[in-house]
Structure formats: structure tokens, C-alpha cells
Design a protein that fits this description.
The chain is mostly helical. Helices cover about 85% and strands about 0% of the residues.
């Protein structure tokens, strides 16, 4: 397999794993909300199937949590690999720099920046700086909802282009007449 195809496939996998992680987290949140409504329903109108429903919802929540952890760890590993490969490709003259720059921006916007903002929010909360903490949580939500999906979509498209595009070879025209 050619190196540019390997790089393109890794970009595709990083974007796809990130998307799968986000989907699993959203499913987990929905199951959590469903469990809260199920618990409220059990308190207000008890029924014989409440315990079974609660156990089933808890089992689904555990499965979704474990299912979200695996692609999240794989995303971190792939982001590290793609980041290193992108840095190497930017400096070289043999490769165009568009896809590596897009990949670096996608990794920064969807992985590095959210980790930094989460750290800021947790630190501000621990120091009882409520306005800073709330602002950081809103900034995190905006980053994850508005910026990160577009950056990962661009990385996905860049990975497709990098994988599908043939590298130009000098034409073999032979001797001129």
C-alpha cells in the first residue's frame, strides 16, 4: 500500500471513530434521560415491571458507556498518529499540504481544544469562579456542536481525496521522432 493511501485511510478512520464516539455519547445521554423519566414514572405510578425496566435501562447504559469508551480511545490514538504524519507531510515537498493542514485543524478543534476547555471549566468550578465555569461549559458545547463536526467532515473529505487520488507520475513518452 502506498504511503499516501495509508495516510488517507488513517484520516478516514480518525474522522469515523470520532463520529462514532459522538453518536454513542448522544445515545448514552438519551438513555440517561429515558432512565430518569422511567424512574419518575416508577415513583408516581408503580407497576410490577418497573424493576425489570430499570435493570434493562441500566444494562443498556453500561453497554453504551463501554461502547463509547472503545472508539474514544481509538480516536485519541488515531489522532496522535495522524497528527504526527501530518506534521511530517507539511514540511515535505513531495506532498501537497492541504490535507495535512485540514487534519491538524480537525484534531485540534475536536480533540485538543475540548480537552483544554474542559480543564478550564473544571478548574474554574473548583476555584468557585462560577461565571468562568459556565462560560467555559458553553464554549465547550459550542465547540463540540458547531466547530468540531465541520472540522471532522473536512478531515473525512480530505482522507477520501488523499486515498482516492493517484500520485502523478511523470509521463513516459519515450523518444521523440
Amino acid at each position: 500500500m502506498r504511503p499516501h493511501r495509508r495516510y488517507g485511510i488513517l484520516c478516514l478512520l480518525a474522522a469515523a471513530c470520532w463520529a462514532l464516539t459522538v453518536v454513542m455519547v448522544v445515545v448514552g445521554l438519551l438513555v440517561g434521560v429515558y432512565s430518569a423519566f422511567l424512574g419518575a414514572s416508577a415513583v408516581l405510578t408503580p407497576s410490577p415491571s418497573d424493576e425489570r425496566d430499570g435493570q434493562l435501562a441500566f444494562g443498556v447504559l453500561i453497554a453504551v458507556t463501554v461502547g463509547a469508551a472503545a472508539p474514544a480511545v481509538l480516536t485519541l490514538v488515531l489522532d496522535a498518529v495522524v497528527g504526527v504524519m501530518s506534521m511530517r507531510r507539511i514540511g515535505g515537498r513531495a506532498h501537497p499540504a492541504a490535507v495535512p493542514v485540514i487534519s491538524l485543524v480537525a484534531v485540534a478543534v475536536s480533540t485538543v481544544v475540548p480537552v483544554l476547555i474542559t480543564t478550564l471549566a473544571l478548574t474554574a468550578g473548583a476555584l468557585e469562579l462560577q461565571q468562568t465555569a459556565v462560560g467555559a461549559w458553553w464554549l465547550l458545547a459550542g465547540t463540540l456542536v458547531l466547530l468540531a463536526p465541520w472540522a471532522r467532515t473536512a478531515q473525512l473529505i480530505g482522507g477520501i481525496i488523499e486515498t482516492a487520488s493517484p500520485r502523478s507520475q511523470p509521463p513516459d513518452v519515450g523518444p521523440l521522432p
